[in-house]
Amino acid sequence: MNGKKRIYLPLFILMLVFLIGVGGFHFIGGGSLLDSIYMTVITLSTVGYKEAVDVGMSSAAQVFAVVFILLCVGTIAFAVSSITSFIIEGELKNILGRKKMDKAIAKLKNHYIVCGTGETAQTIIHELLLTKKKFVVVEPLKEQIEKLSTVEKVLFIHGDPAEDEVLENAGICHAKGILLALPTDSANLFVAVSARSLNPNIRIVTKGIDIGSHKKMIKAGSDSVISPANIGGLRMVSEMIRPTVVSFLDVMLREREKVLRFEEVPVLKGSFLIGKNLMDLKLSEKTEALLVAIKRAGTDKFEFNPSGKTRIHINDILIFIATPDMLSKLEEISTIQAGGRGHSEKSGVDSS
Length: 352
Known about the structure:
This protein has 352 residues and is of the alpha/beta class. It is 50% helix and 13% strand. Strand 4, helix 8 (185-198) and strand 5 (203-207) form a beta-alpha-beta unit.
């Protein structure tokens, strides 16, 4: 029996018994409606106040009173034990916590949705937590949700992500991206179709177990398909021929006190960065982030280790090695509008 039924059922039985009592005292005992309500309440609550209906006037009324008293004893015992158990076992806390979580999910904007809680999904969740990203997890299996509920700061929804209503509850219309890490390719494929239809602009990254299914997933709406087996093979080769580089990346990824990642900062229309060179902006000095490359707008070309004279253009993407806090400063700087005073105490930049 789920949490709602455990609280609704005893309340429903109490109400039913109450109505039976009022009807019996009114029609069998001959009392007025108010007297019948009074008699029902004192009988249910086992309070020995003076009787308002003389049940001794007829045998039928006496029989009804005896049966009703026995019924009340059983009903009260059942209701009290059910409600007490409901509270002690934490069901009430879970329901209140669920409502609080639903409100938090409803407020999310530009967040990520993770579908699944398997090994791949657990790695995704861990990485999103480390890099301080906003996200919500959708999982169809209740036992997996119970495990996830023990992890702090993780918003989650118990439901099938293939259902539009579940994705809508996860904020698909306002999400920045969705990561599909369900156990089968067919499940991921179906959710990709649903996600793309609900939000045409969302970025979809899908786990693809069978290499042959990757093209279908791209056609279904996925922006990128990742093969765990392929990634694992590349990692093994890297461990063999460039172990020092792999060791460096591992240290960077596993460090807890200073979480460094390769991050990207797009230069959008209106940003005061447009037309300025790196020497004047001094982005690395102001944020401590390391600029490693620039992806030029409209091309697949990367300009690695750009010099101070390099000029920034609209829709360029700046690639940094940065912590989450450094990234926040960079994003704040990039959103300062050209032509206005966009000074920020946090970033230390003045656009004038």
